[in-house]
User: What shape does this take?
Amino acid sequence: MHASLAAALLAALLPLQALAQTLGATACRELRQRRNQLASEAMQAELALVIATRRRLCPQQEALAEQANAGTLAAAAGSGADQAGQADGPKAAPPQLDYEAYLQCRRQAEQQLRRSRAVLHTNLNGFSFYTLSGARLARSADAVQQRLNEGCEPPAAAAGAAASRSAR
Assistant: This one.
C-alpha cells in the first residue's frame, strides 16, 4: 500500500519539479542577460578612457585607426557611398595606418593608465577597471556572476540536462 501511495505522490510531484526547473532556467537566463549587460557597460566605460588617452598621446594614429575602422564597417555594410565616389574619378588615397606605430601607441596608453591611475576593481576574469563607473558596473556584474555560479548550471550543461530529460 505504501509503495502505491509513494508512486502516486511521485507522479503528482514530477510535473511540479519540471515547472520549478523551467522557472529556474528562466531566472538563470535573465541573470545571464543582466550580467552581460552590466559587463558590456563596464567595458564601454573603460574603452572610453583608453580611447581618450590614445587620442591625447598619439592623435594622428588614433584618428587613422578610427577612419580605418569606419571604412571597414562601411564596406561590411555594403555602403553605396563608395560606388558613388568612384564615379567622380580617382581620389587621393588617405594616409595609411601604420599598425606598428598604432600598437606602440596602444601600449603607451595602457602603461600610462597603469602608472597614473589606481585600479579600482579587478573583475572575476582579471580585467582591471580604472573608472568609477566601470568599476561599479563590473562589481555588479561580478555579483550577478556569483549568483549564477551558486544557483545555475552553465548554459551548455543546462541544455544537455534538458535534452536528457526530454529523451526519457
User: Anything to note?
Assistant: The first strand starts at residue 121 and ends at 122.
